[in-house]
Write a structure and sequence with these properties.
Low-confidence stretches: none
Number of strands: 2
Order of helices and strands: HHHEEHH
Number of helices: 5
Shape: elongated
Strand content: under 5%
Largest sheet: 2 strands, antiparallel
Structural class: mainly alpha
């Protein structure tokens, strides 16, 4: 309790540095990337084609799960799960 009380006057990011914790933004991004990995590798019971367009090419450098980013001009679509994953 004393540790937390001593940090109550510090800014948000400074508290996380002192406690060796990750920010909420980082934890959300990590969760999104883990979920995308599960979907692409068929570890979840979700059709990958609903979210992502995978490469049909046979020769890729390093892996066979390359994701194409589809162009969109709508702001609401740019914040969608599959677009956020590709940007990161």
């Amino acid at each position: 309790m004393k540790l937390v009380r001593s940090l109550k006057n510090l800014p948000y990011h400074e508290r996380f540095k002192q406690l060796n914790l990750y920010s909420l933004e980082y934890r959300r991004l990590r969760g999104i990337l883990i979920e995308a990995f599960k979907i692409i590798t068929n570890k979840e019971n979700v059709d990958c084609d609903q979210f992502f367009t995978l490469s049909g090419a046979l020769q890729l450098r390093g892996h066979s799960k390359k994701i194409y980013k589809q162009y969109t001009s709508k702001t609401c679509r740019q914040k969608f799960f599959s677009q956020v994953v590709i940007d990161e």
